[in-house]
Structures are given as structure tokens and as C-alpha cells.
Write a structure and sequence with these properties.
The complex is a heterodimer. Chain A is mainly α. In chain A, about 75% of the residues lie in helices and about 0% in strands. Chain A is globular and about 60 Å long. Chain A starts with a helix and ends with a helix. Helix content of chain B is about 70%, strand content about 0%. Classes of the chains: A mainly alpha, B mainly alpha. At the A-B interface, helix 1, helix 2, helix 4 and helix 5 of A face helix 1, helix 2, helix 3 and helix 5 of B.
Amino acid sequence: MKSVVTTVIAAADAAGRFPSTSDLESVQGSLQRAAARMEAAEKLSGNLDNVAKEAYDACIAKYPYLNNAGEANSTDTFKAKCMRDVKHYMRLISYSLIVGGTGPLDEWGIAGQREVYRALNLPTGPYVAALSFARNRGCAPRDMSAQALTEYNALVDYVINSLS
Amino acid sequence: MLDAFSRAVVSADASTAPVGDLSALKAFVASGNRRLDAVNAIASNASCMVSDAIAGMICENQGLIQAGGNCYPNRRMAACLRDGEIVLRYVTYALLAGDASVLDDRCLNGLKETYAALGVPGTSTVRAVQIMKAQATAHIQDSPSEARAGARLRKMGSPVVDDRCASLVAEAGSYFDRVISALG
């Protein structure tokens, strides 16, 4: 799984050398920002259901046609699945905050995403709307510290970019 | 390959739940500089550690460098030194990552079978790894004593932390023990 530490180790291993001073510097750079990432992950994990629910509601409010018969949010089953998807993204963002890299999002969220949505005929616009709401809803220092919010926003942006 | 953080994430993902308890990872972050110092202590002394470990192994078993021994001729001695360095390198990676997966996947997987096929004696290999374990402990603790060093005692200033990185010593020791049990 891609993180600063695993990237450094993979590079050192490919060259067959012990971790060098610059390798250790890279790891330390990641560890210095880790406290803020941990804070964001903790706050997000603790409120995962609420954050996902708000984001989902915002996206349905923006795209009410999704409730029409035959659309992606028309039945209770579909609604539950939409809600679950948003929650999955928020959970993967919390994982990526912990790892300190985009590994969890890349491997479990983004790989194959385009193909799945195309096969299921799902629009990506509403996901972007939900995630944009989740991004802009965050507020420092009310929700978390400014640095933690920066880390969180960067990862939400990463997912939004992957969907657009 | 996983590190301490991705290990927590992978096990949380198995139950599609957020990572519940972050206290262990926060402790990992808080003591991050100690870990980097420990890795640096091993990496900076690696070639000395390896040659001492192999020399120690041979001192205890002179048959290794006599005709027919596994460290005779130079070609096989060189292979032995190379393997010692490889094992130490992967242990260092594991210590840096805080997780044994890189050691397991890239070094220990199939190592016992390879050595059996090549006729490398397991007891000698284990002995060299044990010596490297003691060396790594000494380097991470950085606690030279009169009793052991005698006239060669060289103090490198006062200790930075009172517990002399006991948890990292134990963690590094567990990775060496992993190598030993994989070979045994």
C-alpha cells in the first residue's frame, strides 16, 4: 500500500541499499504532518455517518431528478446504496489520512471506478456534488484545526478530481 | 508491503469500519524520531555489524573456513557476507515501517527452502542472526559499559531518553526473532 514509508523502502530495496539519510528525512517529513492527519481522521471517523448523510442529502437536493422513477435514487434500495457509496468514500478518505498517502483511495476507491459507474449507468456528477458539499462544509477551528482541515480538503479534492 | 499505518487500515477495511483506536498510531508518530535514530544507528554501522557477526559465527565454528566448510573458499565467504547484509537490510526496513510484512514477503518467504537446497547450515545462519540481534540492541540502546568494552569504552554523550528506547529494542529484537524462527 502506497505511503511515504513504503515508497521510500521500495526505492531503497530496488537499489539494494540501507535507508539513507535522505530516506529518513522523507519519512520524518511525513511524520511531522501526521499529527494533523490523525486529528482529521479521528474527527472524520467519529462523525462518519453524519458527514456522509449531510453530503448525500445535499447531492439529492441539488439533483432532485434522481428521485424520479427509474433514476439512481428512486427506490429505498437505491437510496441505501447511494448513501453507502458516499460513506465508503468518506471512510477511504479517513484511511488515506491515516496512511499519509492516497494508497487506500487508489486501491479501493478509484481503481475501476470509471468502469463500474459506466457499467451501472450511474452519473458521477451527484458524487461530485456530495463530496463538494463535504469539502466546503468543513470549518476550522469549529470542526478540526486548520492544518487538519487542509489535509482533509486535499484528499476530498483528490476524489473529486478522480470523478470529474 | 505495509507499514504500521496501512496495517491498521487494512484490518479496519476487512470489516468496512473506520479505524477505531488511533492511540497506538499516535504513539508511533510521537516517538517517530526515536525510530528514525534507531534505523540510522543500524544503517550507519551495517557493514561493521555484518562482518563482525560473520566473523563471530566462524570463530565459534572454525570448520566453516576449512576445506569443505560452508565459508570456504572466498567465493562462499563472500556469499555469506552478502546474505548477512541482506537479512540486516530487511530487518532495518521492517523497523522503519513498523511492520514485518516487507521482511516476510521479500526476504523470509522461501528462504529456508533456498538454504536447504543450497546446503547452507541453518544453525550457523541462526547464530550469525543472533549476533546481529545483540549488536542492533547495543546500537539502539547506545549504552556502552566498562564491563563489556573495557579500555575501548567510548561514551557518545548522555542518553537522550531515559528508557533507552526499550520499546524499539524489543521491536527490532522481534524482527530478528522472526528471521531466526523462519530459518529454524
